[in-house]
Design goal:
The chain has 14 helices and no strands. The chain is mainly α. InterPro entries: AA-Vitamin_Transporters (IPR050638), EamA_dom (IPR000620), EmrE-like (IPR037185).
Length: 297
Amino acid sequence: MPSFTPRQFVLLVLLTLAWGFNWPVMKLGVADYPPLAFRAISIWLGVPVLALALVVMKVPFRVPRAAWPELVWLGATNMFVWHACIILAVKALSGGRAAILGYTMPVFSAVIGAMLFSAVLTRRAWTGVGACAIGVGLLLWHELTDFAGRPGYVALALVAAATWALGTQLLRHTRIGLPTLTLSFWMTLMTAVVMTVLSFLFERDQWRSPGAVTWGSIAYNAVLIFGFAHAAWFYLARGLPPVASTLSVMFIPVLGVFSGAVWLGEVVHWQDWVAVALMMVAIASVLLPSRSSSAKA
């Protein structure tokens, strides 16, 4: 398993914090506001932040005409389905633990990689996947009763996770020779259009001015999630093997659960603490260099 460069590690830490704390932030933001509209506004406000980053870093905006079909497909699998499905699930399911269903993604990623891309997973990688899967099960322990009455939203979250896993694999194998920031900008812009259309079709009778809490949640998402986190994630996903880039952010749902407990008053059970230990095992299986790598160093 490869070790992380200092830049990748710093981005990983910042990404984990931004995404982890965002789950209760989103829950607060959509509590009394249409979820698709919340998502659309957040993305539209995040697009200028990304654009400014491209200008400052002198990254080109231009995409060759031949690359657009693949870029649209990457946007659909990495962002369109994920953002539509998961924000609806966050609205319906309980607190920060909505994150846990979304972060079953590494399990899907491992299976998709093996089935579609002939990926060879080491024993250590499977240990990390297994630890994640068990941790997810434990974190869902006290949610099963609530989920029983809302299977459709559970399915939405799992569809989001599986589609995102496919997108991560496709991004890793993309033939588009463009900077990651360029891809991130156009995928984000396309997603803003898609979320706006969906909100118009299904929520236009609920449209209204957001309240103070919702505006705060929108600002957090615009700057930290769509202005930074997605670009950082795409950079990591393109530069690391899919299992490494996905398993390494498994601390995000842990942050979602415990920040939800602090901000939303949810009870943390013993299963949650055991799950934290399992997530640390999963992260260690990716971040710590193998013996062979250490020997070569």
